[in-house]
Amino acid sequence: MPADNTPTKAYAALHESGHAVMARLQGLRLGPLKITGLGPSASGSVSVCGPPTPEESFKILAAARICLNTFNINTVLDQGGFSDEGESRTILDEIFPDDENQQVRDDYTDRIDREVTELFEKPNILAAVRALAEILTSACEIDGLQAEAIIDRYLAAGTKTA
Prior knowledge:
three-stranded antiparallel beta sheet, 6 helices
């Protein structure tokens, strides 16, 4: 990541790796992870096999932002974050269809953010993100099984020491 936090392939790879690691933490299977473009136009995608619950989806979306923050990356420049934000609002509408009380939504978002932040403070979680992002940055595409194997190796290491 450049010192000025300009989005690059490495930045996009960290963003997508945050999504992927959170999905695995919830026991979800991964499809391919991809990075396209260079420099500020770099973007990525990760797919999850099977439909996650709204709460799982919300956590997966929050994970990319929290992951970038954990690596001291300014998320104001995160183009993927704008898309994630829109999806998050849609999910909140699904979870709270009749609730116009913004405080209820804010409290839910704060609770999820705290849960995800606690996870991304664990050394094995950060190591999984870092390893996946490094490979994704150089390869630009990782199939779901390979991504799962990388992530699961680090998740298993964390459970042995816990």
